[in-house]
Amino acid sequence: MCRIPVILLFIVMFMSCSRTPDYVISEDKMARLMADIYIGDAVVETEHRTFGNDSLRKVLQQSIYAKHGVTRELVDTSLYWYGHNIQAYMEMCDKTEEILQKRIEEAERAGGKSDGAPRHMSLDGDSVDIWSGIKMRRNTANIPSDFISFNVSSDKNWDRGDRYTLSVKGVNTHNLVTLNMAVDYNDGTTEYRWYNGPADGMNRLLLVLDSAKVASTVYGAIHYAASPKEISYLDSISLVRTRGRNDNVRAREGQNVVKNR
């Protein structure tokens, strides 16, 4: 009687173990879906006047689900499964990042704006994600640092009155997250703003630059300390720069100012 070679048996077993269950959206499809969701989140963030309430946000989300032929329940079930299958989750995130990067490059070619600027750092346009660090971090009690920091120096794409939105999404988190952002101006002053609240879900912090001053550096940090035995994630980390709007004065209310010299 013929026997299946041992090596072939291991390959078959590996393939069956790595395949997502029937009730879970496959990695490729999930990556395409998440890419559209991230783009949708960016639209909501930059066009907050149009998508200013939860009802309209849900309409946009449901249109994305309909495009991909999925339901909210199926997406929630799939995200829960990926949250408990870390390797598959990481592979799906990598595929999502590749899709988003490809779309950015295609948009730049279509718009004629490819000028050799570093990816995710200094790009032309009214709204762009300039975050260059990790997009997702796994939280445990023994990670080397509870902080994720960033520092962005001025370049030719900066403009007075620019807005910077720092975003991070907590998944399975138990504690509070703190977001800090600050800007140094050439006149020796610094403005800063911070947010502290439950990490679970999407968290955002807005910093609006003074249109009467020249900024030199924008910097800040995300802080989250996991509880003992906790395994959670900080996901969808971004730093979106947008051009100033007419309501900058109102948006700047609550920002703290200190003079360094």
UniProtKB/TrEMBL annotation:
It comes from Duncaniella freteri. Residues 21-104 form the DUF4296 domain. This is DUF4296 domain-containing protein. It comes from the Bacteria. Pfam families: DUF4296.
